[in-house]
Amino acid sequence: MRVKSPLHCVIHPFSSQASDLSQIHLLFISLLPSICYVSLYRAIINKKRKLVLLWIKLK
Question: 28 vs 12, 35, 53, CA distance in Å?
Answer without folding.
Answer: 24, 10, 36
